[in-house]
Each structure stands twice: as structure tokens, then as C-alpha cells.
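Good day; I would like, with your permission, to put a structural problem before you. A protein sequence and the C-alpha cells that stand for its backbone fold form the material at issue. Thank you for your consideration; the sequence and its C-alpha cells are set out here:
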Amino acid sequence: MSEPSLKVLLVAGRFEVRGSSGNTLRLAEGLCLHGIDAAIVTPNADCVAPCRRERLAVSVYPRLNLPIWGRVVRESIVRDLADEPPDLIHIQSWSTYRLGVWLARRLARPYVLSIHGYLPPHARIRFSRQWGRRIVAVSQSVKSELLSRTSLPPEMVSVIHAGVDVSVSAGTPAVLAPGRLPVVGTAGPLEAVKGHVFFLGAAQRVALSCPETEFLVAGAGPEEENLRRLARELGIIRNVTFASNLYDFSASLAAMDIFCLPSLRQGLGTIMLEAMARGRPVIASGVGGIYSVVRNNETGLVVPPSDSAALAERILELMHDPVRARAIGEAGRRLVAEEFGVERMVAQTADLYREVLACEPTASPTVVV
């Protein structure tokens, strides 16, 4: 492989154990195979495994998010990049949009913005066209919602699905294997919009019918204490394991027989894709981008959002029919392998970069520091 011909700066927020952060890391790892040198700037990378961080060009600016210090830190980023500025800036989320646009202006470089989910209802969406070239939406549903709230032309928004490792199913235990306690789980940031209270409500109902069932809640976030308290109030605390302080969800997903995504709003569901890649049957709320992946009763099961009873019913369906559960899990695994592999996501993103840069002036403006 020849030396990378393009340099891209990935502007990321604080890394967390969640789908969008994992997407940034996988993108940075894969771009080198397409002749692109990717560097990351972030205010915090403590949640990135040290061995993984060593392989990547990650620059951490701890005070980047502070109101006053942040201005000083932004200037230091510009100075650090002045000698070898990137050809393109890829802003990784709406939360880092202002920072990314500021850097694009100071470095006089075009930028691309990724949107992983639905924006807050009252968010004012102003996409700067001075240096902004394209928005990447994680699903067609996210693109449609974005276009309905802006005057952006459809051709400015490209849909590139999140990509996951599709080679992880080898060695994963069989779904609902005989002689093994069934494990039903969910994973992701513990936030109210993710609907974990309805997962625990379903867990209580399932435990009444199958008291030996184990439930796993993997992740951390502002709702963790509330969820632990709810598990105690529902009388299922002995059946529920909370797994936090993780670098990723790989071990948790491998331990599950059934994966549940009870979200109230969902752009796509990267962690769900990771579960499907392991052949785990998934049950998801019928919201947003879920329908890009889950074909009801084929590649997964769909339930109404905010409905613990319906979720419990479908969990029990799979637990009482392991053969069907495995068939659904296998169908989901094949779909993810065909359409949601990380290589496909990285290749499409690399093509987008080159398409954007092909329209830029040949001479690069001088960076002023």
C-alpha cells in the first residue's frame, strides 16, 4: 500500500461506549486501506481501549468543551495542524458541529457532517454552505426527517449506514443452547430515550413465566441509578446484571441469547447490528431507522415502542421456540454481512470524500495562525 494521498480530520465529541463512537473508531481504522490518513481530535478518549487507541492518531484536548478554556484549546488545535492541515474535515456528530465548522473556517477546508440520529425537536439547523459540502445520514429515515426540517436539497444528504465487524460470530455460543440459562439483554447508553424502563418491565413479566431467565443491561449513563432502583422495585434485581465501565459491548453481546432494543427514537441501531452480526435474534421497537434492518418475523421481531407487555410476549415466543430464534438470528446475521459490514461503510465514506474533494479548487488556501 502506497503512502496515504489524502488527510482527513475526524472531529469527535467525548468518546463513550455507544454506537456512534464505535462508528468513528471503525472508520478511522479502515480508511488507511483506501489511501486516506485519518486523525481524530476529541476532548476525551478514556473509554477507548488503550491497545486500540495506540493504533490510531488520536489527539486529546481535555478542556475543549469548557466555555473560556475551549477558545484557547481551539486555537492550539489550529496551530498543531497548521504545518500539515487536513484536506477535509469530517464532523462526527451534531454535538461537535460548531467546533468542526470553526475549524473548517480557520483551516479553510471543506467539511462533511455525520448525523447518527434524530436531532432535538427544537434544534435550529443551520448548515453553513461556505465550507460545508455534504451531510451523511445513518439511515433513510434520518435523511427524511432532516430534509423535512431544512431547505437542503436532497442531493446534499447521503445515506451511509453504520458498519460493524461481520466476522465475530465464530465461537459465539448457540442461541438458547440446552443446559444453559437463557440470557435476554440490551446494550447501549443508559438514557431515557433508549426505553430501558420498558425492557425491565418486560423482564418482570418474563421472569414470572420463566424465573430462571437472566437479564443483562450493558452500558452506562444518567439513567443507571434509576434503572437499578426500578429493578429492585420490580422484584427482579437478582435476575438482572448491570454491566458498566466497558470498553465495548462485545463480551456482553456474546453472552446474550436474545437482544432487545426498546428505544423510543432510533436513527438506526449500531449496537443492534453488532448483536445481529453474532447471530443473536433481535426484538426492536418499530421506530425510525429500525425498519432499515429489521424485517418483522424474518430478520428480527418488531414491537410497539413503550410497550413492556408486547416486548415480553415476543421474548417468550423466542424462548419457547429455540429453533425459530436461531433461524431469525441467522437471517439477521446474513443481512448484516451483506449490507452493514464495516468495509462497505468505510468504502462508501472514502468515495464520498473523493467526490467532495474532486470539486474543490486545486490550490489549497494558506492557513493563518
Summary: The chain has a mean pLDDT of 93.
